[in-house]
Amino acid sequence: MIPEEVLSQLRDIETPPPAGLWPPAPGWWIVGALALLILIAGTYMVWRRHHRRAPRREALARLAAFGIPEQAGTDWYAALNRLLKQAASNLYPDDRPAALSGDQWRDFLARTSDTPGHTWQQLVSACYRPDSNITPGQAHQLVEQWIRRQPW
Q: Which residues are within 8 A (CB) of 98 and not within 5 positions of it... i.e. 6 or more apart?
């Protein structure tokens, strides 16, 4: 047997103190870094989208400022076409839409939208003819749809 003097030197097992909250385990550092990275990337993507769509918001605000008159003259239709050309110049600078007119402008609008060319022809010709077949409400809606459906 073990002598009594040796047994008297033994102590009970002591449990270590509980682990503190700081510093966290390595896994929590990785989770925190990934969460921070996702937050930064998400913020950047939202900012970039907001910045990229600024011309769209501006074009829609200018269109809303035009209003929809009961009887529109050629100047009103020409202003709609100018607004379309400015928006198209922001979106398609390589196509040089500001230099297009007549059938080329109509074909460009038809190509960049899902609306047939004869509808655009009515809007384009309304700038020159006081007796157009398109009402101001239809023209306003047509321009608004074109602006909203573009890949800003």
A: 85, 86, 88, 89
